[in-house]
Design goal:
Distance between the termini of chain A: 44 Å
CATH superfamily of chain B: HUPs
Radius of gyration of chain A: 21 Å
Number of strands of chain A: 18
Distance between the termini of chain B: 55 Å
Number of helices of chain B: 6
Strand content of chain B: 25-35%
Largest sheet of chain A: 7 strands, parallel
Largest interface: A-B, 92 and 76 residues
Oligomer: heterodimer
Shape of chain B: globular
Order of helices and strands of chain B: EEEEEHEHEHEHEEEEHEEEH
Helix content of chain A: 25-40%
Number of strands of chain B: 15
CATH class of the largest domain in chain A: Alpha Beta
CATH architecture of chain B: 3-Layer(aba) Sandwich
Largest sheet of chain B: 9 strands, mixed
Chain lengths: 319, 246
């Protein structure tokens, strides 16, 4: 039995919950077992997970569970895993997943493999593939343990919606929380957070100053992309800290990463080299980033970026 | 207050990544090793600041062979009072967490800090495992922490923002950018580090069924395709028709 921890945000299942469910149901079929899901806290449509191959979802719906708490979430997930005899617990490698993954494995006496980007079945055994050395290599893991807890980096596997609803089993008991008190949450609204973004437009020192960011925002707007920046730009305060991608900032893996006026230091690449397609715009033909790029444009960004925005506008109008 | 800071040894960010022994082991030959940046820049430095304003002692702990001692000496040079090395290969996160938890149980700490992840295995596991082994709360990806009289206010980085949490010691925290500013050890610190205790202790039993079957390097990207800066319609066409991402 595989147990998927399906995360929600604002009462809706998150995209990475669907991604995880699709992968879990595929692996379950190959192992001739079943994949079920657990949803913790308020959720409008838990049955929707059925479109991604999950036949049953356990919904723990009590106000004590609406905000994440590591003790309460641990107790719910481990309690259910013991009850159904889960051999594999799958989480997403998100803020919540990072807080929980190791804790769950210790409590469940399971092996733990975090931050994987793929799972496969070979001769009846599960293989776990994990990017290591900040994406510069991959490690193939196996486990001889009866139980495993693993977390999948969001946006790792492709998936699509099918048909059907999952059977929902509601459980409404209150669960004891830890003594950690949540004072407030400040989250930017309106855009997709960087770790989950499929399209990212990022800019660096080549922008010359924060007053020039209008052309970056316009390009991001037309694409529906999330904006990001390099370390020097966030360190000097041109852009907020939460936009910094790279080794010390946020690691991302979008489908498209457009880097504008960023030279491509190795520490920056470590955070973005899992992007599927990289476009680099830089006036310096020797910028190291071109070596890591799929498409390059060597030119003045103040001319190239508005032209690219116009080209996307024409494309949108025609398609 | 007494703080335990967990420090790892990792290859330098710029070190080449290659493997030996049937691609089962990282090739350490000729590589430069450093203290994991999140452990050094944020976890250790914040621990030093807390000690400076509240008194107490900062202990650093590492699991690894004698060749890790220079990493611990650097931690002592930055200002830690003493260092502990658990003399064993750091096979996986559970093994490391079990060593740290065993030492912490015997010695009692108000706070245990580690970095948000190591830059080699990027697992982000040791902190949450230590917390569970000690039955303490764990705050992952802390980018700010204020402390007064046994109570801490901590910012946790979450997707697209932060969560502000209030809790009492003891607890475990993993450090992200923002928690502190990097400190460079000065000559006095380096000299004093030589006289500070570095104790080597044996490992406790802790096993797992995990094994790495092989490492592999990513497929070559192929060379970059350059597009005429005056023809951005061509770039859009390539992204649509060739890369198929828009």
């Amino acid at each position: 039995m595989i147990l998927v921890f399906a995360e929600t945000k604002d009462g809706k299942l998150k995209k990475n919950a669907f991604e995880l469910s699709s992968l879990a149901s595929k692996i379950a079929a190959e192992l001739s077992t079943q994949a079920v899901a657990v949803v913790v806290g308020a959720c409008d449509q838990p049955q929707e997970i059925g479109k991604y191959g999950i036949s049953k979802v356990f919904h723990y719906d009590n106000s004590s569970l609406n905000d994440f708490d590591d003790y309460a979430y641990r107790d719910v997930i481990i309690g259910l895993a013991e009850e159904i005899g889960a051999h594999l617990i799958l989480l997403s490698h998100t803020a919540i997943g990072k807080a929980l993954c190791g804790r769950l494995s210790v409590r469940y006496k399971a092996d733990c493999i975090s931050a994987i980007n793929g799972l496969s079945v070979e001769s009846g055994q599960i293989k776990y593939i994990k990017p290591v050395f900040s994406g510069k290599a991959f490690a193939h893991y196996s486990s001889s343990a009866e139980r495993v807890v693993a977390s999948l980096i969001p946006n790792s596997v492709s998936f699509s919606a099918g048909e059907g609803n999952a059977e929902v089993e509601n459980r409404s008991d209150a669960v004891e929380r830890s003594a950690v008190e949540i004072i407030k949450r400040d989250v930017i609204s309106g855009t997709v957070p960087l770790p989950e973004a499929e399209l990212v437009v990022s800019a660096g020192r080549g922008m010359k100053g924060p007053e020039n960011w209008g052309i970056v925002d316009e390009l991001a707007d037309i694409l529906g992309a999330t904006t990001a920046c390099s370390r020097p730009v966030s360190d000097t305060g041109w852009r907020p800290h939460h936009e910094h991608v790279g080794q010390t900032g946020i690691a991302i893996r979008p489908n498209l990463y457009i880097a504008i006026g960023i030279s491509g230091a190795i520490q920056h690449l470590a955070g973005v080299n899992n992007s599927k397609v990289i476009v680099v715009i830089n006036k310096d033909a020797e910028a190291p980033f071109f070596k890591a790029a799929d498409y390059g444009v060597c030119g003045d960004l103040f001319e190239v970026v508005p032209k690219l925005t116009e080209a996307f506008k024409r494309f949108k109008a025609e398609n | 207050m007494n703080i335990l800071v967990c420090v790892s040894k990792t290859p330098d960010t710029t070190a080449k990544v290659d493997f030996i022994g049937d691609a089962k082991k990282y090739n350490e030959e000729g590589k430069q090793f450093i203290m994991n940046p999140y452990d050094e820049w944020y976890a250790l430095v914040r621990a030093m600041e807390l000690k400076e304003s509240n008194g107490g002692e900062v202990t650093i702990i590492n699991v690894g062979p004698a060749s890790n001692d220079p990493i611990l000496r650097k931690g002592l040079a930055i200002g830690a009072d003493k260092a502990i090395r658990v003399d064993a290969e750091d096979t996986d996160a559970f093994f490391v967490a079990s060593q740290i938890a065993a030492y912490a149980v015997d010695n009692g700490f108000d706070l245990i800090f580690c970095g948000k992840e190591t830059i080699d295995y990027n697992g982000s596991l040791v902190g949450s495992m230590v917390a569970e082994l000690l039955n303490q709360p764990f705050i992952s990806y802390a980018s700010k922490m204020e402390y007064t009289d046994g109570t801490a206010i901590v910012n946790r980085d979450i997707e697209g923002g932060i969560e502000v949490l209030k809790l009492k010691t003891p607890f475990v925290l993993s450090a992200a950018k923002g928690l502190a500013e990097q400190r460079i050890p000065n000559m006095r610190g380096i000299m004093m580090a030589k006289r500070k205790p570095l104790d080597v202790i044996p490992a406790v039993d802790a096993g797992s069924g995990l094994s790495i079957e092989k490492f592999e390097l990513p497929a070559d990207k192929g060379s970059v395709k350059m597009v005429d800066p005056n023809d951005m319609d061509e770039l859009v066409r390539l992204l649509h028709e060739e890369a198929k991402i828009i």
